[in-house]
Amino acid sequence: MASKGFFNAFADVWMHEGVRTPMVDYCGALGHISPTDLGIKAAREALKRAGIAATEIGSVITGNMAPGDFDQFFLPRHIGLYAGVPQEVPAIMTQRICGTGFELFRQAGEQIEAGVCEAALVVGTESMTRNPIAAFDHRTGFKLGAPVGFKDYMWEALKDPAAGINMIQTAENLAKKYNITREEVDQFASDSFAKAVAAQAAGFHAGEIVPVVTEKFELEGYKARGIKLQGKVTEVSADTHPRISPPEVLAKLKSVYEGGVQTGGNSSALVDAAAACVVTSGAYAKAQGKKPLARVVAAAAVGVPPEIMGIGPAPAIRLLLERTGLTLDQIGRFEINEAQGAQTLAVGRELGLDMSKLNVNGGAIALGHPLAATGVRLTITLARELQRSGLRYGISSACVGGGQGIALLIENPEGK
């Protein structure tokens, strides 16, 4: 595929210590919590870990796909205000479906390099559980004998009406195009689970998680918000989906489509979570005596055919490499969202990727894919992994429903 799309190179944009909530299974312990409040929790902790006062933030850039409550329109503003950002600082909601979290970093980089601000707060938050049962047809009432239009928002959102196809079918198309077998997809999924369990046991994931507890978010002169855990739960501190899943166990699951390769066990997990990070100019970091986590070097976004939307990371990554003059083997780690197992394997084959560099701490099949939070989570994980392994360059990337791909190149200046 030709490397078409848009590209941003950033000369002096840096990400600081980021954080996320645990990623908790659909209808689990975080299922009743507004994505706004999950976002506030992550935002407050990101500022704390970065050692940057909320009053220093000049822009709030948030992402959230599905409305988790009736005040979703105010989500960016409320996250900023309740995180302590000054009232005069504006906030915006950004949407690129599964690529939203990466887009937040891209827009932060653009704003910083344009002189709009010196420090931006980026927050991706998603409650898959609170996706509504919705109808768009009944503002004028219910007509006798006419079908009732209420549908599952999340299930319907998986379908691309232009191509007449859903996201699982796009992965099946890639499996056929790249001759990927069910056995290969199940093995890939099993490996993702094993890596996630090992990283969890080693404490790696805990290093980027803020435990969620019952607490209030106060804002002087305004109604308090907050989180209230239910039942006897007093703290949620770990991801819930990772578990050892041998290929022979995964092989027993029924495929979504007869004769297909995708199942509930080798596709990304449904989870609720939020992730946040502070992005600043290097000049600001130096003046404040802060040591950033990594440099945001470049971003790329491309379009691909909707019916094989999952291949999107491949041309996005190619565009990054082409414009930055780097080669694939110079990239020490890749974090590519595991929307579906066949989709990620197809990207690997298209690029000729060394799969030992990919998602070394587990991917979305094991950990989950909370849409707008995913890109922030992947980029934080990647930056931390580059530091842990002493490597220099890493790329985080995802496919995007409707036929797009997006990727970020980050650098650990102390890496090799």
From TrEMBL:
| Keyword annotations of the record | Acyltransferase, Transferase
Gene Ontology molecular functions: acyltransferase activity
Annotated Gene3D superfamilies: 3.40.47.10
In this chain the Thiolase C-terminal domain maps to 291-411
Domain named Thiolase N-terminal: residues: 17-281
EC number(s) recorded for this UniProt protein: 2.3.1.-
Record's superkingdom?
Bacteria
Principal EC category: transferase
Q: Which PANTHER family match?
A: ACETYL-COA ACETYLTRANSFERASE, CYTOSOLIC, ACETYL-COA C-ACYLTRANSFERASE
Q: In which family does this protein belong, per the annotation?
A: Belongs to the thiolase-like superfamily. Thiolase family.
Q: What is this protein called?
A: Thiolase family protein
Q: Record the organism.
A: Limnohabitans lacus
